[in-house]
């Protein structure tokens, strides 16, 4: 497995955990994929053998004014984990105080497990016999969406 330089920190941590499992031989590919399924993480293996995973992560806080949200999301299909995303967004300040930089699992508006890495979180969920949860990493500091514009000479 190859870890790209352009990945988010959360994605890189997941890749490292998966790589360590595969390299040590403690988790063959089928077992890794089974764990991803149990954690509710969608995955796809490309024709070239690359593993892609969906990981929901806050990428911009205060991205849009409240009065524009209805217009911006009009016609969009909502992800199946939208309730958990909304809950995390509403409680992000509190979650950051308690779980800064950690991976958390949320079920029904409650943090049911937290860990330094996704492997530890998976172990906790396994021990608690939790199959489906919303998993994300809580950013250590506010995430600001910035856009750069450049003038083009004609």
Task: Characterize this entry briefly.
The protein is α+β, with helices and mostly antiparallel strands and about 150 residues long. Helices cover about 40% and strands about 15% of the residues.
Please provide a written account of the structure.
- This protein has helices at residues 9-24, 29-38, 69-73, 82-90, 92-99, 118-127, and strands at 43-45, 51-53, 103-107, 110-115, 134-137.
- It has one domain (9-137).
- The protein is 38% helix and 14% strand.
- Mean pLDDT is 77; it is low at 1-7 and 21-25.
- It is of the alpha+beta class and 154 residues long.
- It starts with 8 loop residues before the first helix and ends in a 17-residue tail after the last strand.
- It has a 3-stranded antiparallel beta sheet with strand order 4-3-5, sandwiched between helices. Strands 1-2 form a two-stranded antiparallel sheet.
- The protein is built from 6 helices and 5 strands; from the N terminus they run H-H-E-E-H-H-H-E-E-H-E.
- Strand 1 (43-45) and strand 2 form a beta hairpin.
- It is globular.
- Overall radius of gyration: 17 Å
Distance between the termini: 45 Å
What portion of residues belong to β-strands? 5-15%
What composes the largest sheet?
3 strands, antiparallel
What structural category characterises the helix and strand content? alpha+beta
Number of helices: 6
Could you state the order of secondary-structure elements as H and E?
HHEEHHHEEHE
Q: Report helical residue fraction.
A: 25-40%
Number of domains: 1
Placed side by side, the strands forming the largest sheet appear as 4-3-5
Which ranges are low-confidence, i.e. pLDDT below 50, for 5 or more consecutive residues?
Answer: 1-7, 21-25
What is the residue-averaged pLDDT? 77
Shape: globular
Number of strands: 5
């Amino acid at each position: 497995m190859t870890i790209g330089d352009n990945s988010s920190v959360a994605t890189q941590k997941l890749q490292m955990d998966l790589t360590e499992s595969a390299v040590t031989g403690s988790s063959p590919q089928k077992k890794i994929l089974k764990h991803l399924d149990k954690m509710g993480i969608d995955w796809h293996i490309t024709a070239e053998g690359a593993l892609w995973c969906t990981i929901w992560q806050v990428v911009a806080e205060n991205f849009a004014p409240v009065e524009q949200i209805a217009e911006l999301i009009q016609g969009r299909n909502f992800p199946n984990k939208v309730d958990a995303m909304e809950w995390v967004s509403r409680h992000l300040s509190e979650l950051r105080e308690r779980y800064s930089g950690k991976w958390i699992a949320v079920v029904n508006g409650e943090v049911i497990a937290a860990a330094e890495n996704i492997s530890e979180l998976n172990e906790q969920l396994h021990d608690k016999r939790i199959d489906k949860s919303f998993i994300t990493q809580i950013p250590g500091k506010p995430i600001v969406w910035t856009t750069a514009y450049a003038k083009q000479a004609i």
